Amino acid sequence: MAILELKAQHDALQKIATTRDPLKALAEFVWNALDADATEISVDFARNALGGLDGILIRDNGTGITRDRALADYENLGASWKRSSQRTRLNRVLHGKEGQGRLRFFSVAQRASWRSVYADSGALKKLSIEIQAASLHKSEVTQLELGEDDTHTGTCVELSPLKDTFDWLSSEEAVMDFTAIFAPYILQYPGVVLSYDGQVLDPSATITHTREFELRSIIGPTRTIRDLSIKVIEWRHSVGGRKIHLGGQSGVVLGSLPANVTAPGFEFSAYAYSPFFQEMADANLLELDGLNDQDYTKVIEHVRDVLSDHFRSRQAEKSGELIQELKNAGVYPYEGDPKDEVERRERQVVDIAIHAVTSYSRDFKRAENSLKRITLGLLREAVRHNPESMHNILHHVFNLPKNRQDEFSNLLQKTNLGNIISASTLISDRVVALQVLKSIVFDPKHRHSVKERGELDVLVQANTWIFGENFHITLAETGLSRIMQRVSEELSGKKSKKPSLRKPDGSIGRVDSFLGRVVPHQQQRHREFLLIELKRPSLKIGRKEADQLEDYVNAIRTQPDFYNTSTFWNFYLVTGDYDDAVRERITQKDRPEGILLEKPTHIVWVKTWSELIRECEARLHFIAEKLQIEVTTEEIEERIAQLKASIMREDPRMLNGSSSDTSESEPESLFDRASSISPARIPGGLAANRSE
């Protein structure tokens, strides 16, 4: 008997031998068997009377461990015979080269015992090796007599007694995780038979899809990582956790880490191979949690990006057949091809949501087509106008499992699809609204028939951004008395009852739309308001209309409700054209063109429809061009028709040909009509344009 003492301190060896993953400890002994050209390997568990695990046995039919190799390798850490070889005798890839794998038992058992039969000069011989967890630096090697069953080479490793129950090792989850580790190797060398707890592993029976990516070189912060290859295996069943397995060369796994990739509905294992990972394993770095090596981090980020792109494509592929079925049934919420880039992005997310719903919602599968059509329309509107609401919809409407809800939410967050769609929809709605407005005020077919009240003001209500991003609509088409009531409520917090406000000449004042918004200010009682008077596009104003606007300004500002308050007013008069007298007043030196009056507490603008639209187009042009938003003539006409139809349905008098103008003595608020019109029916209608 020989006592070999490893020339290293026990505490240093303990750090090398420690692993928190018992399955990885078992895997090291399987890799050693594969490196010994074993074609049959079994991992079995010795159980006590109560079914608990007492020990672990790893058997193989490999070439065994010769006495000379044991004397050399077990005495010197890092002196494994594998360091001088690139491949096994059967020309298979090698896993370990540092001679550290045999010490991994330390995390599982108190003792590791090898019984190995090997060939020496044509004759079979047998030896045993034993290492105690309490003295990792010592290996006891003993020559043994052959037994009756020792008819061929091979090794049996026994790990006992176990340090813990480790019942998880015999679970189905452990079997699948073990399969994931060795699947690439078994697929690469189909002659290898590996069994775990009596179950022969057959990865091909549970694989649904595989993909290999071409070799890449990654430029890291301090070096270039060459020959990085990535492989993805998609499983029919869960493999106990999505992981990225790292190896030095194809088929070999040196370490693993969580994938952290959003892939709804997929169970997968990813494999990344590069000599870089072999270097990391040789330095014992793949065992470290939170490894912050800059080059390593760069490579892992790249791997995860590749996987994310892969599963987005795979999700689209899987949903393709399902989407076609929904189209054939007439319940898919879109028709034809996407009309622009915005809708294409939108459809991608909707399709993924549809796939999630149809995969996990039994109620949806059993629903009638009419209900499916309504439900999918709800999904489309949610993605279009409020992608962030999808989590609640998937939970409350479709009762999806929480993990599937989270996956979809993470998909929107990590890919910024929610932000892209929200921004795209916002710009798209504005472009469409602007096109409709242009058609109304410029097209001769509409220009001479459009009305300020009931048509233009409703469109403006839904799109107050045309006057500036800080303005939101509150009330529309009301008398100045209603305006005073509204402003008084905002400033004082109580309803003010006052007689109808009259202009200096005694008549009751009216404006077409009143829009307001509180502007953030250091003084919380500060208020800023917007007051708009709309004129039909065919009208040309002069001094009379400009003076009338000043009357409105003075009537509002001189009310006692605003005495000693911090208030700023923005007044607009929008018209088709103005005469030279007005032009002279709004083109003064040293101030922007269009300002009629500018004081510390208020500013008064006069704008033509063409000026207003041109300014909006300039703001939207760049983004709209990048999004490739196009609005057809048919869509413009359809939205104008929807606008008019909405107004007429809400006001029966208009069906009888009555004028939309109401009595000056009893002004009517068109806000009551406009507020009941769905934003979806108003061109460019956005919820954000309503009063806060």
TrEMBL record:
InterPro entries for the chain: HATPase_C_sf
UniProt region (Disordered), positions on chain: 651-692
Pfam families: HATPase_c_3
Domain of life: Bacteria
SUPFAM superfamilies according to UniProt: ATPase domain of HSP90 chaperone/DNA topoisomerase II/histidine kinase
Full protein name: ATP-binding protein
